């Protein structure tokens, strides 16, 4: 994929986010949160056995988070739990190569998804299981120091 194609895909997801909104009667939901600024993503799952039948997300965050959520949910819809977990882990593994603000946004989406899977599993034993929140480990920006001024 060349740079122009990547730009077009990113712009399309920005202008027309996929899977945005609340999913009623979700089988699992989870929150990814940035403890530094209060931004958060909620992911909702509707499952068919071990396959993701439907997935939605909501975000109180920047446009980069919306784009990451749109691309991620579009990619994992229809996937098995294991396939989707692998994709989330792959995304988390590549965050060190991204600018800090983009890494934090993508991590929030992945953590919300993993929390939703945790909730889905917990609800099998306890239908009243509490929706889990996973905090991100990356800051949106590198703190200013004497060396970076």
Note the topology.
Layout: H1 3-15, E1 28-33, E2 40-48, E3 51-60, H2 63-76, H3 81-93, H4 100-125, E4 133-135
Parallel strand pairs: 1-4
Antiparallel strand pairs: 1-2, 2-3
Overview of this structure, please?
By secondary structure, the protein is α+β, with helices and mostly antiparallel strands. The protein has a single domain (3-135), classed as Alpha-Beta Complex (Sufe protein. Chain: A). It contains 4 helices and 4 strands. A 4-stranded mixed sheet has the order 3-2-1-4. A hairpin with a 2-residue loop joins β2 and β3. α1 (3-15) packs across α2. The chain starts with a helix and ends in a 14-residue tail after the last strand. The model has no long low-confidence stretch (mean pLDDT 91).
Portion of residues in beta strands equals: 15-25%
Coarse shape: globular
Helix content: 40-55%
Structural class: alpha+beta
The side-by-side strand order for the widest beta sheet comes to: 3-2-1-4
In DSSP terms (H or I, runs of 4 or more residues), the helix count works out at: 4
| End-to-end CA span | 36 Å
CATH architecture: Alpha-Beta Complex
Gyration radius, rounded = 16 Å
Largest sheet: 4 strands, mixed
Order of helices and strands: HEEEHHHE
> Under the CATH scheme, which class?
Alpha Beta
Our count of domains comes out at: 1
CATH topology: Sufe protein. Chain: A
Can you give the mean pLDDT? 91
Extract low-pLDDT stretches. Answer: none
Total strands: the figure is 4
């Amino acid at each position: 994929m060349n740079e122009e194609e990547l730009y077009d895909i990113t712009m399309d997801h920005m202008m027309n986010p996929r899977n945005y909104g609340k999913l009623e009667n979700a089988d699992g939901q989870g929150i990814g949160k940035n403890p530094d600024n209060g931004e958060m993503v909620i992911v909702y799952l509707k499952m068919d056995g071990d396959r993701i039948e439907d997935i939605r997300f909501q975000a109180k965050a920047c446009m980069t988070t919306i784009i990451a959520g749109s691309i991620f949910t579009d990619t994992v819809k229809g996937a098995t739990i294991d396939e989707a977990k692998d994709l989330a882990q792959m995304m988390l593994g590549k965050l060190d190569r991204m600018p800090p603000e983009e890494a934090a946004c993508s991590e929030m989406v992945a953590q919300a998804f993993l929390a939703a899977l945790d909730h889905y599993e917990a609800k099998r034993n306890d239908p009243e299981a509490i929706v889990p929140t996973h905090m991100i480990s990356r800051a949106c920006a590198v703190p200013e120091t004497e060396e970076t001024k």
